[in-house]
């Protein structure tokens, strides 16, 4: 799950709906190469006196993903620091989402750049995750539990959309059906439902001056087992030190890790 801090390349401005044109006028453009999931992500920057913006654009099923993110951003804004929606356009075939930028480095960039601060960064990540999971489940209109995700995963598997070359090291050389069989063999799992981010990875958390300043890429947010988030973050930390993985669970204040749930959610993530 390692990503490069050099995550974007300059590019020309792209065609956008007329209703968004005034908002993006005068900006320089760069295309983001991390975590696009089939869509396109652009950072708009360099306009004197104006903050950076991000634009997401998707077509087909990616348009639905962009729409899902817009709806969740609007809802999450009452609970957590997330990008503010500056504009949104949806057509039958495409969607455009314009958002404010959250200040800071990604958590991955911060862990890479400041080795001495890694324990404090992990503590901040765990604290932010507990804050996310403290949102009242009764207030959340979105469902992302593993039954829902399993149905999505099966559709992706049957459609040939699973990238087996991107599997974690433990499953290199496996095919998608082997992962499916190993994953479903771990069911049933006792539910422990909270409001989850859905993709709580180091690239989706921003860190600045000793704190997590917010989260991005919230299109999968919804009620699910807390291990949906814990497993992804734990797996990301393997790029650094095993001690940080242990620290995560200690700071999060959970009991000894539930390895059955953790492994299930790691395998589930292979399908997305």
Automatic annotation (TrEMBL):
Catalytic residues in the record: 199
Catalytic activity: kanamycin A + ATP = kanamycin 3'-phosphate + ADP + H(+)
SUPFAM superfamilies: Protein kinase-like (PK-like) (SSF56112)
Highest taxon of source: Bacteria
One Gene Ontology MF term: ATP binding
Pfam families, per the entry: APH
GO biological process: response to antibiotic
Listed name of the protein: Aminoglycoside 3'-phosphotransferase
Organism of this sequence: Pararhodospirillum oryzae
EC annotation from Swiss-Prot or TrEMBL: 2.7.1.95
Positions annotated to bind Mg(2+): 204, 217
Family label: Belongs to the aminoglycoside phosphotransferase family.
Alphabetical UniProt keywords: Antibiotic resistance, ATP-binding, Kinase, Magnesium, Metal-binding, Nucleotide-binding, Transferase
Domain Aminoglycoside phosphotransferase: 41-264
């Amino acid at each position: 799950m390692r990503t490069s801090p050099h995550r974007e390349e300059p590019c020309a401005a792209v065609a956008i709906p007329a209703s968004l044109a005034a908002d993006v006028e005068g900006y320089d453009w760069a295309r983001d190469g991390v975590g696009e999931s089939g869509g396109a992500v652009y950072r708009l920057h360099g306009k004197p006196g104006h903050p950076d913006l991000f634009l997401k654009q998707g077509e087909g099923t990616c348009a639905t993903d962009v729409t899902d993110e817009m709806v969740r951003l609007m809802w999450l804004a009452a609970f957590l620091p997330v990008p503010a929606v500056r504009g949104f356009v949806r057509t039958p075939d495409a969607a455009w989402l314009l958002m404010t930028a959250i200040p800071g480095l990604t958590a991955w960039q911060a862990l890479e750049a400041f080795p001495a601060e890694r324990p404090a960064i992990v503590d901040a990540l765990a604290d932010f995750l507990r804050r996310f999971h403290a949102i009242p489940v009764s207030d959340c209109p979105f469902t992302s539990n593993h039954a829902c995700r399993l149905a999505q995963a099966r559709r992706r598997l049957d459609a040939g959309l699973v990238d087996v070359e991107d599997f974690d090291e433990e499953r290199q050389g496996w095919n998608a059906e082997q992962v499916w069989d190993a994953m479903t063999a771990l069911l049933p799992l006792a539910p422990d439902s909270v409001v989850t981010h859905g993709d709580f990875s180091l690239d989706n958390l921003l860190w600045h001056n000793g704190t997590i300043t917010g989260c991005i890429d919230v299109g999968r947010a919804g009620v699910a087992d807390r291990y949906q988030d814990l497993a992804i973050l734990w797996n990301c930390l393997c790029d650094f030190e095993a001690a940080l993985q242990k620290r995560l669970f200690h700071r999060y204040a959970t009991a000894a890790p539930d390895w059955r749930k953790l492994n299930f959610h790691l395998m589930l993530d292979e399908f997305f």
